[in-house]
């Protein structure tokens, strides 16, 4: 079994749990509800990107996948000012990221959510009329390159795979799902 297969199997329950708890229909039912959802995503990404960047095995690769700036762009389009965005609450406590392998495990969750983001983007566009230019840049982050970006991430993950690293990678992915669930699904 490859590391990617193991991750999919061992995080399936956590993935299903967060997907159910998100209540996406409610959270994209209006511009205000959608803005509040983006605020929660911003709080996660701003904290996570800051923490994970310090231990990322390849900083340029990691930085090319950061999404806080896209969330800030969307929030500005939806009426928040830069100062307001900078003052938004951030997700704490985060999951432990003691090593580069843990960052990769955590990235598995974040990059995987980008695949789901393409589906969410279509719903946001249909319900709210928002595009990547008018408030849906985060969910459209990689545009038409979403599959290629996932494939390149998978290659990096498989390259890092080893008997010593795999448990750490899987554990970090599970921890990330838990933190993300608790942060995104709590009532602010």
UniProtKB/TrEMBL annotation:
It comes from the Bacteria. GO terms for molecular function: heme oxygenase (decyclizing) activity. This is Heme oxygenase. Pfam families: Heme_oxygenase (PF01126). InterPro entries: Haem_Oase-like, Haem_Oase-like_multi-hlx. One of its GO terms (biological process) is heme oxidation. SUPFAM superfamilies: Heme oxygenase-like.
């Amino acid at each position: 079994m490859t590391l990617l297969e193991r991750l999919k199997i061992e995080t399936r329950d956590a993935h299903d749990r967060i997907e159910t708890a998100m209540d996406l229909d409610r959270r994209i039912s209006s511009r205000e509800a959608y803005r509040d959802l983006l605020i929660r995503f911003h709080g996660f990404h701003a904290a996570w990107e800051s923490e994970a960047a310090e231990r990322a095995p390849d900083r340029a690769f990691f930085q090319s996948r950061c999404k806080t700036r896209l969330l800030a762009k969307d929030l500005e389009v939806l009426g928040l000012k830069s100062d307001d965005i900078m003052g938004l609450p951030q997700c704490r406590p985060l999951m432990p990221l003691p090593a580069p392998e843990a960052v990769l495990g955590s990235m598995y969750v974040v990059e995987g959510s980008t695949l789901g983001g393409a589906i969410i983007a279509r719903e946001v566009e249909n319900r709210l009329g928002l595009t990547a230019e008018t408030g849906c840049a985060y969910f459209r982050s990689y545009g038409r390159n979403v599959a290629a970006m996932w494939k390149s991430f998978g290659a990096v993950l498989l390259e890092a795979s080893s008997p010593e690293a795999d448990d750490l990678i899987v554990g970090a992915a599970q921890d990330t799902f838990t933190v993300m669930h608790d942060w995104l699904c709590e009532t602010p």
